[in-house]
Amino acid sequence: MAAAASLLLAALTLAVGIHGLARAWSLARHAARSLPFESGSLPEQHAVSRYHVRWYAVTVLFLAFDMEMIFMYPWAVVVARIGVGAVVEMFAFLLLLLVGVVYVWREGALRWT
Hints:
There is one protein chain. The protein is mostly helical. The chain folds into 2 domains: 2-40; 54-107. Helices cover 72% and strands 0% of the residues. It has helices at 2-29, 54-82, 84-107.
């Protein structure tokens, strides 16, 4: 019992010591990396700064394609078992996503000039 306790104490001391040394060494050598922004680069603006309104349309486009992929894979797995109802529901869903893509296209988010 005493051997197990001493072994546990030695392991904990070693783990805490190595963690402490690594933390002290990394903060001393790379003080900028302790900042929570852009991989150690000094931030040029505040982290809670506002985004330009043009990114709203890009976000809608991303969500449209992302939601399409999230729901199409499970649908493809069960479509043969469910039948025509699943096909009709998926086309209704894709039509709804198409409305979002048309909106983004109309707003000009697909022009990168």
